[in-house]
Amino acid sequence: MSGNPITSTIPLDEDGEHHGFLRLPYSRDDSAWGSVMIPITVIKNGVGPSALLTGANHGDEYEGPIALMDLAMSLKAGDIEGRVIILPAMNYPAFRAGTRTSPIDRGNMNRSFPGSPSGTVTEKIADYIQTVLLPEASIVLDFHSGGRTLDFIPFASAHVLENKEQQAACVAAVEAFNAPYSMIMLEIDNVGMYDTSVEDQGKTFVTTELGGGGTSTARSNAIAKKGVRNVLKHAGIMKGELDLSASVMLDMPDDDCFVFSHDDGMIEAMKDLGEEVEKGEIVARVWPVDRTGRPPLDYRARRSGILASRHFPGLVKAGDCVAVIAVKV
Ligand SMILES: [Zn+2]
């Protein structure tokens, strides 16, 4: 397997429920022959499609790890036909630190693909997923949220793809996930993303943004738990009817969806998530933090739509994403 140093402590292709670790040797000051132990569960029953389910691609996003730990504990081989590979915390060192990127190498997992078997810890994990796990999967679900610095309306999303048949399969799986919103998402910069690796391997892919602020809510966790089961049913792996309610279809057609700050300061939200916004309306103001008697700077929507994402912490820096406006289809 391409010289990657990671080994699995459980079989990836045996019937039953197996809970274990991907063990990545990591020699360091406090453990000369130590390892990073990345939790993994594989549940398999006979012949059928395989799903790869991942969370904590960014370490400070929690709906994925919660829904996947819950699934790993509750799903039994007898409930499925095929295989479910569950990796609740892809960037496990980041997950343990509660940070977006890895404390070991500052690696941003979603900018580290396709990875390298001889690279940093983050690159080795990416390479193992790229070369060992991904080729096994027919459908892939990767959970995201806003992390500590962004907050989102809850949506599942697919990307615009050159292969329209693959795109249709991804959109159908997004609809099956059935978050309150479904999005055709535009990426700011897709180089190195897991998403791109998955899509380049021709897989059906669903990603999400379910909340943010470095935590999760009862509502966002319920959306994640329902969504993952719906996707497994949609893929024909899990038995039973999909649990469906209304979902609003959204689009992010171009760069005009994004509003970036040009200033450091204190952010005052003028719109809340899910609110309608008219082009030219103020979505946020940025106040100077160091004096009184100066007006705030206004940040305006560059298109009409609904507020899909916002900067989360109270302080903002130049270059931060202040707001994302999505368009109802
Ligand atoms: Zn993320």
From TrEMBL:
Record-linked SUPFAM superfamilies: Zn-dependent exopeptidases
Organism name: Hoeflea alexandrii
Keywords: Hydrolase, Metal-binding, Zinc
Protein name (database record): N-alpha-acetyl diaminobutyric acid deacetylase DoeB
Location of the Succinylglutamate desuccinylase/Aspartoacylase catalytic domain: 48-234
Membrane-spanning parts: none
Record-linked NCBIfam families: ectoine_eutE
One Pfam family in the UniProt entry: AstE_AspA_cat
Needed cofactors: Zn(2+)
